[in-house]
Amino acid sequence: MSDHDYTPKSKVGKWFNDRLPLLTLANHLTDYPTPKNLNYWWTFGGILTFCLITQIVTGLTLAMHYIAHADMAFESVEHIMRDVNYGWLIRYIHANGASMFFLAVYIHIFRSLFYGSYKSPREIIWIIGIIIYLLMMAAAFMGYVLPWGQMSFWGATVITNLFSAIPLVGEGIVTWLWGGYSVDNPTLTRFFTLHYLIPFLILGLVVLHIWALHVPGNNNPVGIDIKKPSKDTVPFHPYIVIKDGFALLMFMIVFAFFVFYTPNILGHADNYIEADPLVTPAHIVPEWYLLPFYAILRSVPDKLLGVVAMLSAILILAALPWLDTSKIRSAVFRPLYKQFYWILVADVLILGYVGAMPAEGLYLLIARVATAYYFIHFLVILPVLGFKEKTIPVPLSITEPVLGGSVNFATAKNKESTIDK
Amino acid sequence: MKNFLKITSIIISLLVFSNNSVAAEKVEYLKTDWSFKGLFGKFDRGSLQRGYQVYTEVCASCHSMKYVSYRNLAEAGGPEFSKEQAKAIAASFEVVDGPNSDGEMFTRPGKLSDKFVMPYENVKAAQAANGGAYPPDMSVLVKARGGGVDYIYSLLQGYEDPPIGLTLDDGVHYNKYMYGNMIKMANPLSDGLVEYSDGTQASIEQMSKDVTTFLMWTAEPHLESRHKMGFKVIVYLFILTVLVYYSMKKIWSRIETEV
Fold first, then answer.
1. Does residue B169 fall inside a structural domain?
2. Which of A361, B5, B16, B202 has its CA 20 to 30 A from that of B117?
3. Are B152 and B55 found together in one domain?
4. Cα–Cα distance, A420 to B109 (Å, whole number)
């Protein structure tokens, strides 16, 4: 592709590369043509990879000291916090790392929603992403159970009980999940096993996610197809590598602040009380990143329908490439969609807030309205908008409007200034 | 870039704010100046040592502290008693050990490696001795309560006569900071209850502050090294970020796009 392509010089290197071209794969990764107008919202893919690796490395270390037993789990966590060398650091990185992971994944998802990255030809990338997100939620939920505090125990009880809403086989499934007739030691050991397994499934899916991305290449803030390689692209290395590195460092500063100065602010105090099956906490709340879905679950009066609504709220995202009928990808050129986009962001934040509040009175009413709006956005507004909306003319290339001469010059230039640099 | 920073900072502050508002109770807690708060927060050694005295003379008759060992008392970042002092403290407790070669359990003086001796043999015994209420283990108590140190500090000073019209059952006390205002623990502190060896006046307020500081340390024994390391890590990351920023500018200057 270019004159600085790496080719193995040594005999062994050549021999190996002829049989498995792993060494020349580096050429693809470094040359990978990337749109040069990507803004900082595009740096979260790299940040998420960092989060996954951090969770795996700290998780492995914790697993060396943690004891998955109902009578010893809580104590072993305190042992890690007190007596394992830098155990407190590793555990706080792991616990806050989960929150940071979700913070980054939400930004990543909402970036995709804004710039229409899920649209053709990137549907598979998007769907793999949704599966990763689902697995992340499963891993995070099971990880939260492991310290065997009060919220661990009761969170596990509430969430696993959701399966009892399934007609006929529900109760049987719950018993099967628990490995007994209540959340107990068998539940803890299987959750630990699965919590250990899922990150590696995620890792495999991340490879597929990136592979699928490298087929059509990145979307970009203008949302147009670009020629690759061309004036509109830069090679991944060094341009994107250094930019992602810079963004990652800023992210790490925020991360470090949580770990070193407010390590427990994102957790719940009750989880420092050892699990007690006889005492139910006043309010059972999941971790912040699950709150919007928890709010949707509780806003439906019927248990089964509530579970269906909660699952649909996530699965509906997988159908998004077909629900959004607009041919234009980027919200920059969709004045109406842009407004509905921000309403959706507000709606999800509101759902998160009411999810943390008791499900009664005004909170319940707000949760119901917000839940209804969430589904209306995807099922009504998006499909209709594609046909009704009058979009702004899209430039033909990323560089062209800047160089001038295009019919879209004025609009494009105007828009260019609003695109985040 | 500006937009990006604005939006992310809003999201993060929302996150922290909403988690805080959920945890916060309706009552305003009493405030005091905790030495361990802030970027460079450290424990006040004197306060920790006095706090240990309050714990061991007052609280320990009902509240266990099963994750803390006597050796911790002499470790850096804690009350930092001398090793001899800590040994003497440990030796003043009778520890059940065994079985010995005859298969018998025996008692011996405590050693540095022993965990704090528990006031009751088990939860049931603790409940039986306290009118059915289990005095919670104090090792991580500060982290296990929504209001943290401010809550514990206020609770210890929150005992009042119940409002007129409210009759309390036997063994139940009124405390304006307790969840639901009813607490099974009788007011544990009174002025001059302990005699501080360093001459500090043992007022209820002073004892509350000292023992709460001590509880903060037992919950977060590595708080000082965490703060110290955090500062170094953030300074390191900040310098690296600046360097990478200028490298990035330099690299991107080869093409006409802003970064």
1. yes
2. B202
3. yes
4. 69
Instruction: Tell whether B157 and B196 lie within a shared domain.
Output: yes
CATH classification (class only), A286-390: mainly alpha
Based on the fold, state whether residues B179 and B124 are members of the same structural domain.
yes
For domain A23-284, the CATH architecture is Up-down Bundle (1.20)
Q: What is the pLDDT of residue B17?
A: 66
pLDDT cut 90: percent of chain B above it: 81
Q: Provide, rounded to the nearest whole percent, the portion of chain A with pLDDT above 70.
A: 94
**CA B243 – CA B104 distance, rounded (Å):** 67
For the domain that residue B59 is a member of, what is the CATH number? 1.10.760.10
Residue B158 CB burial class (10 angstroms; 0-12, 13-18, ≥19) = buried
Task: Divide the 421 residues of chain A into consecutive groups of 10 and give the mean pLDDT of each group.
Answer: 72 94 89 94 98 98 98 98 98 98 98 97 98 98 97 96 93 95 97 98 98 96 91 93 98 98 95 95 92 96 95 96 96 96 97 93 96 98 95 84 47 46 39
Burial B14-40 (b: 16+ CB within 10 A, else e): ebeebbeebbeeeeebbeeebbbeeee
Is-contact B74 B85, C-beta < 8 A? yes
Selecting from B1, B39, B251 the residue whose C-beta is nearest the C-beta of A421 gives: B1
Residues B45, B139 within the same domain? yes
Residue with tokens 């922290």: B16
| Exposure letters A362-373 (e unless 16+ CB within 10 A, then b) | ebbebbbebbeb
Note the pLDDT of residue A406: 45
Beta bridge partners of A34: A234
Is residue B193 located within the same domain as residue B151? yes
Task: Please name the residue of chain B whose CA is at the shortest distance from the CA of residue A403.
Answer: B256
Q: At what angle do helices A303-315 and A291-299 cross, to 10 degrees?
A: 140
Q: In this structure, are residues A34 and A235 in contact, taking their beta carbons and an 8 Å threshold?
A: yes
Note whether B126 and B179 are same-domain residues. yes
With CA atoms as reference, report the closest residue to A44 among A195, A192, A254. A254
B95 close to B108: Cβ distance less than 8 angstroms: yes
ipTM of the complex: 0.92
Size of interface A-B (CB pairs under 8 A): 122
- A344 with A106: CB under 8 angstroms? no
SS3 B107: strand
SS3 call for A33: strand
CA distances to A394, B8, B72, B258 from A417, rounded to whole Å, are 14, 20, 59, 11
* Residue spans in chain A of domains classed CATH 1.20.810.10: 23-284
pLDDT of residue B25: 47
Structure-token pair, residue B30: 């009493």
Closest residue by Cα to residue B154 from B164, B144, B142: B142
The answer to whether residue B42 sits within a structural domain is yes
Q: Which chain B residues touch A37 with a CB distance below 8 Å?
A: 257
Binned at pLDDT 50, 70 and 90, residue B180 comes out as confident
Interchain pair A269, B229: CB under 8 A: no
* B250 shares its domain with B128: no
Residue (of A363, A327, A370) closest to A345 by Cα position = A370
CB-CB under 8 Å, B221 with A272: no
Distance CA A60, CA A417 (A): 46
Q: How many domains does chain B have?
A: 2
- Chain A residues touching residue B215 (CB < 8 angstroms): none
Q: Report the chain A residue with the minimal C-alpha distance to residue B247.
A: A242
Query: Domain residues for B236?
Result: 222-259
